[in-house]
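Mods, move this if it's the wrong board.
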Amino acid sequence: MKLLAHITTYKGKRKEQSLKEHSYKTAKYASECLLNTKFSNTAYLAGLLHDIGKATQLYNEYLEKAFQGEKVQRGSVNHTFAGVIYLFEKFHTDVNSPMEKLTCEITATAIGSHHGLFDCVDLDGNNGFIHRLRKDRSSLCYDEAVSSFFEQVADESEVQMYFQKAVKEITDFFEEARITYNNNGYKTFFQISMLSRLILSSVIEGDRRNTAEFMSQWKEDEREDINWDKWLAYCEDQLSKLDTSSTLNRIRHDISGQCIAFAGNPPDIYRLNVPTGGGKTLSLLRYALAHAQEFNKKRIIYSIPLLSVLDQNVRVIRDYVPDKEKVLEHHSNVVHEKDKGEELDPYELLKESWGAPVIVSTLVQLLDILFKHQTSAIRRMQALCDSVVVIDEVQSLPVKVTEMFNMAMNFLKQYCNATIILSSATQPCFEELKWPIHLAKEPDMVHLDSLQLRTFIRAQVIDCTSPYGMDLDECTEFCGNLVKKHSSVLIVCNTKSQARKLFRRLQKEAKQLGGYILHLSTSMCQEHRSNDLKELQNKLSLLQDDVRNGGGQQKVICVSTQVIEAGMDISFEAVVRVLAGIDNLVQVIGRCNRSNEYGNIGKVYLIHLKNEDLGMLQDIKYRQICTRKVLEFRKQIGETSSISGQAVHRYYQYLFEEIRGKVRYPVKSYGTEIYLMDLLSNNNGSANGKENDGYLLHQPFKTAGQIFEVFDKDTIDVLVPYQQGKKLIEQLKSMEEKQFHLENFKEIMQKAKKYTVSIFENEKERLERQGVLHGILENRIFVLDDKAYHESYGLMDMEEYGE
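Not the wrong board. C-alpha cells:
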C-alpha cells in the first residue's frame, strides 16, 4: 500500500501526493523559514514527523472516500497524536536529559498543534501531553503508523540525527535566555513559549504551502533573494525629485539622511522619534531598504495601527519602489476560521503567509501573529524572522499587552535576527517597565536640535476642558462657533457614536454656511474612507489656495474618530480633540496647519464631554486621567504652545504608574485575577500537581490564545455593499463549493479586503437579528445588506439612526 497525504483532480485527472513527498517538502519548507534563526534543524524535525499519524490504511481509506465524494466527517481520523506519542516514547524517558526532554516537548507541541493549539497544562491542571500519551493506541493505529512511516517515508537514524541537532539548538537557546534574564525562570519560560510558537509556525507554513501547491497543481515561486540594490536605487532616484526649498522640507530631508546613515547599524531594537509631519514614512522606507541591503534581510514589514493610515502609506511606498505588485497589503481576515480539529481547512490555504518582500499590515495583525490561537495567525510568525519590522505609531499599543509586546520584541531581536523600529512622535518609555524592552545601547536613529524642533511648532494648544465637561448640545454650539471663525475645522471624537451624533447636528450648521462636511470612522470600509478622504483633501487644497490668495470664505468640516489623527497627510486651520491621551493630542496637532498652509499659528482646542460613554475603551479612561495631570504639569513649567518632549515623557511616567497592574494582560479565572503573561511563562497557578512534575512545558497555549484579544471584544470582518463590494458579494453568493477554484477565490478575496468593516460579536448578533447580516460559504464570510450601509456613516446602527 502506497501511503498518501492528499488526492486531488487536475484537468480531469486524478493526482496523488505520497506521504513521503509531503513530509519531506514540509520539513524542507519549515527549515528554510528558520534558516537564519539557529532553529532550522528543530523545524526540519517537526516538519518531517508532523503527519506520522497518516501512515495507516485507515487514513488512506478516509482520503479515498472523501475523493470519491462519499460523506466523511472531517478530522475523524486522528493523525496528530501519533507524532507526540512517538517523540515521548523515544526521547522523553528516565535516561533523557532535561534539554532532550525540553526539545521533545517543543517539537511534540508543534506536531500536536499543527491543526490547532492544545494546552500543555490547562487552567484545571490537566496535562495535554498525558492526555495524548494515554489515548487508546489501537484507535490511532499507532503501531501501524510508526512501522509504515519508517518503512516508506523516513529512516529512524535520520530522525535521531535531527533530534540531536535540535537538542543542540534548544540548549544554546536556553543558555542564552538564562543569561539574558539573569536566571529568571519566569522570563526564560516566556521566551520558551515564543520559541514553541515559532517552531509551530514554521511547520504550519511548510504544511500549508506544500498542500496548496499540490491541491492547485501550481508551485509557489521560490523565495528568491530580493534585489534590494535595485529597490534602494529606485527609491533614491524618486527621493531626489522632492522639493527641499522650504525650511520644513530641508529638515525632513535631514531626518531622511540621518535614517539612511543609521542603516549600517546591526540588527537591534531602535527608535525613530520625530515630530508629526517629519516625513517618517519615506525616511523609514529609505532606512529599511538600505538596512535590508546591508544585512540581506528577507523582507520589510510595516505595522500600522489605523487602516486609513495603512491605505495612505501603501500608496506612498508603492510610489517609491520599482516592483509595486510585490508590496502586500494585509489587514483583513475576510475568511473566518473554524476549528476543524485534525483536518486541514481548505479555506486556510487562502490565508496569506506573508512571503512578499514588503508587507504593510495592522498592529492588530502583528499582535495576533504573536499571541492569538488561530493557526492562520501563528503561520505568519515565521515571516517576522530575518526581517525589518517597522512598528509605526507604537504609542497606539493597547495598555494590557505592553509587557507581552516587550518580551516578544526582545525574542524577535535576540533569536529571530529581526530588526525592530519603534516609530512615534510620542515614544513611550517601554524600557522603564518591570518587563522592559531591550533597546540598543544607542537606540535613537535621529537627533534634532532645538531650532529644528521649533520649526515643527505650527499650532497652539488651547485647554478648554472643565471639571464638568460639555453635553452634546454645548459641544455642537462650541464647534459651530469655531466653524464661523475658521475656514476649516477637524473634530476628533473618542467613539463612533459620538462622531455620528455630532456630525448630524453640525450638518445643519454647514448647510447654513454653504460649507462641506464629512464624517469618517471605521464603520466605513477602507475604499469608502479612501474615496471620501480624497474628496476631503481636494476640498482642503482648494480652500488653502483660496486662503493664500486672500480669500478663505469657504468652509470645510470633518467629524471623525481617531481614524484620522495619526499619520494622515491632511491639514486644517483648527482642530477640536475630545479629551484622550497626550499621545492622541500630539498626533492631532499634526493635522493642524501641517505645513503652515494657513499663514498664522493654527489652533488646537481640547474639550471634555460630560457623561462620556466609553464602554469597553478602558485605555482611553486611563489616558484621560494622565492627560489632566500633564495639563497641570504644563501650567507649572509655563508651557503654553505645543506639547514638549518633557511633557510627553512625564505623561508616560504617569500612565505606566496608573496602569502598573494592567500591562501584563489581566484576566479573570474562577473569580480570581490572573495574568496572560503568567500563563505563557510557567503557569504556576495551574501546574502544581504531581502529575505535571515530569514535564517542562506547562503553558496553556490554546486557552491563552483564545483569551487574547487586542481589543476587549472579539471582532470579525464583514463584506459590505459599497461600490464594487456589491459585485463581490454577488460573486461569492453564486460560488458553490463544488465550483470552488482556489485561484479564483483568492483573487476575489484580495479585492474584498477594501470592502470590509470590523464589528464586535454583539454587533454581529444585533445585525443578524435585524436580518441585515448573512453568512455564506459555510458561514466563512459574512455579508451586509444594502439597507444597512449608509453613504455618510458606512455600516449603520439602525436603532441609533432611527433616533
